[in-house]
Amino acid sequence: MSTTLGTASAAPGEFDTGRLEVGETRDGSPVGLPVAVLEGADDGDTLYVQAVSDGDELNGLGVLTRLFPRLDPADVSGTILVVGIVNYHAFQVAEHRNPIDDTKMNRAYPGEETGTSSERIAHATFEAASRADLIVDLHQGSTSRMIDEVRVRCGPRHRLHRECLDLAKAFGTGHVLDQKGPDGQLARAGPDEGIPTIDPELGGAVGWDQSSIRRGVEGMQRVLRHYGFLSGSVELERQTRATGFDQYGSPVGGLVDFQVELGDRVSRGDELFAVTDPFGQVRRRVTADEAGIFWRTRRLPQVATGEYVCSVGTDTDTF
Ligand SMILES: [Zn+2]
Are residues 116 and 199 in the same domain? Predict the structure, then answer.
């Protein structure tokens, strides 16, 4: 029996691509999200994976373009359902949010069949995701600079928290942000439906970052092996987890000069960055309020007073 997603349909041992229709564009032509189905030669679980939920986050798409040519359905047990580009409209114009309704897709899950453009896309993709035993929603730290990490968003009191952490550990970027996310995230709607879900955040780039994409491909292959879609075992490595996130803004206007590197451990009182004038004269130095891991920074050096500069992952442990 074949497995279908939109117009993609694969019998055991096959891979097929197609389109998942979600309404029409302003000129009346159909909006079809690019989708794929990989039906393994042997029976097994179902994995759902999607990319480009945020239209400017392309590393996940880079992962899919490299992962699937290397996957032979003859070697796979189970089914992989893929939506390659979720935020169709934002992707066309290389923006973060869907320009049709100015909405962030990852606040619209589980979606609404007769809702706004984003709600309809969320609904259609969530229907596909709900058929799976595991969900992987490939993101990145937008166009900021960020470490590679995996987010578990259901919150520590959720009944699926442990399963989500296990999935994050299998993906294995080395860092996990374990913090309940805002309403409307797929990584919250999935667990509420009883499906372990992770949100890998593959660095942060404008366009494609090859090292983060490589990490993402490895992460997907590790998940496929760990959950029995591919043969072989995975050596699980300890992950560093942060359960909080301190954000730092600039106290003055000027140019940011970072004093630590992404991924560095910082102690309370360590200097994170200086803000200089155009002639390199330091106007202010900003130190860490709390110990943690230097997690994310703005990309451009120029800042106004109060503008976002960087984040430190806090309350860290390993698991
Ligand atoms: Zn994102």
Answer: yes
